[in-house]
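Lab meeting prep.
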Amino acid sequence: METLKHLSVKKHEGNDVPLLADADSAKSPGIKHWRESSQFFLTQRWKNLGLSFTLLLSCYSAILVPAYLPTKQLTWTESSTEDYLDILNRSAALLSRPCISGFTKTKLQKVLNLDSLLQIPVFLQNETRHWELAPPLGLLGSEGTLAQTLRVLPHSGLPSVPDRCRRCMVVGSGGILHAKHLGAHIDKYDIIIRINNAPVFGFEEDAGSRTTIRLTYPEAASFLQQEYQNTDIVAVVVFKRLDLEWLTSIVTKKPLSWWTKLWFWRDVVSDIPLQPGNFRILNPEILSRTWHVMQNYGKHESKTVPTLGFTGIVVALQLCDEVSMAGFGYDFKHPGSLLHYYGTVRMDHMMAQVVHDVSAERSLLRGLVKSGVVHDVTGAL
């Protein structure tokens, strides 16, 4: 040991130098911990990446794989294809009987409080009426627009139908009509009433091919031009003033402005390949009086409106000596069954709606069928 002033150092013997191992051993414990943490998070990141990939693959499989698997065809009920022969026989029996003039009106006056409906014109003929209610139960606030629309409609009466005892068939959109092969029977009726955009094209075997009156509103009118073939009348049910403007546009072939189109809750067809004489406006008084009658059948007074299917029945009661219906009835016991004879919408969709009081309508329809006023060909009520 050599002393230099107050400092002392140790001399290394020979060629001794500090080793790297000695230097590592002198580092702080924090560095070692940092290295271990880095390795942990790197490993965990790879695990998370693998898990994310697995989840993504599972999601794609859940979406894509079922599309390539065979699926069960939606039906009205499990027995819907087993009893169609009975339905055909029932329909054939009705058509083979002679038509009785005034049969429906006589029955209706005896059993139900609907005879007041028989005095109402089915289609609007002028704009002089004083309306107390707004659409759809009246036309209060739309008188000016109504006058403009009526001026472009050359006719307001019925189409040219045989002036004899008339039979009506109201074709509902229910799934019960699917695979029943009633099309040829339906086409034999004098007046055939259809609802909204219920298709004919491609469904002739079950639903028939002719249409005398199609009740609809703008958002429910079909975009397919072939659906208007063999159609005598498109009768617009007015739910708002814009519906009258739409009808004027359809008849005059003058398109609506983009601003007006924005106020419809869904895209509307801009052209229907029919002549002005093929269009009518349904008398809102029909919906109003029908709504009042339905209050006696509902659980409580509501602000709902009649379905167009039930409205079609009321129109048929006014126009025909005998009335039949097919495709009516909701199978709420099977929420997964078809709501319509076309498409894939299921019954639970109708169960969730609040616009129509279907329970009241079902009670009223059952009363009409039980009393013999209306014949239920498909028998789903």
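Slide two material, second protein:
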Amino acid sequence: MTDVDLASRVVGGSVVAASDESFGFKERLVDPGEPAFVPGTYDLRGEVVDGWETKRHAGRDGDWAIIRLGAAGRLHSIDVDTRFFSGNHPTACAVDACTLERTEDPAGRAVVWTPIVEMTVLKADSHNLLAVTDRRRWTHLRLRLQSDGGVARLRAYGEVVPDPALWAGVTVEVSGLEQGGRVEWCSDSFYSSAGSLIAPNRPHNMGDGWETRRRRDIGPDTHDAVIISFAVPADLLRIEIDTSYFVFNASPEVSVLGSRCGADREHGWGLVAFDVPVLARTTLIPDARQVFPVDVAGVAALRVQAYPDGGIARVRALGVPAADGLQVLHDRWEESS
């Protein structure tokens, strides 16, 4: 659960240009929802598709689309998802990347693109997971098709590399997806993903949150839990627990523990001690944002415990980088440039 889709519209990703979008809109590439298809449904463009699809006969250079990442960072893999595209999927694709200022035109002739995925044959109606080994920080991607065709979604999985200048002298939502926060583990995600907990937007409905199955092993200490890590250790000032839209199934109580350590390569988060009290076991009310002042220094990750089960829409931890945290951010920024 550690990698984040940096291209998703949830974090502000956008498809800023494409060579063609005759049959399917380019913006569908970064839609956070899963693709769908209803056979036999037509509009004036032809059969309705849930993805980006170009006209036939693209020519020698193939088609292309440029994606601005919602959060700049290092990439680990790219999923070129061709689900529901079979007789009309592209033959192959390559991916290039660049780093630009927000106001620069990524479609301009002066842009220097770096290949990060070589031309690779694509499977029809499938996830096509392509590894990225270049560890530099990128702001834009260019998906180049060897031919014409359709792609349902593009997911750019990696880690956010926050700009240290944006953390200096201000309080930051250190748990937030846009600032390098990550959901590392959860005890259960039967109804919906715990990844929603750190999304930057307000929840839209009950499905836009974390909801577990109903526990039947009720006891004094029975609970579900989720681990959220930060980009760097932080001094915490406020915790927000949001149960919006969870009217009849919100978690009745919550507690928050912190850790001053990170995961190790051998055991991951399995042996990390969460021994720093952040928020004592506290009663929650349903369908409401609840803010709790805290004062805890040097926390690298949180374990949020929901008693005994239920739903939470968002968890937000606000604070400032710890004494050495800002330097770590600067070092990471330099390493990825």
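Talking points for slide two:
The first helix runs from residue 325 to 335.
The mean pLDDT is 95.
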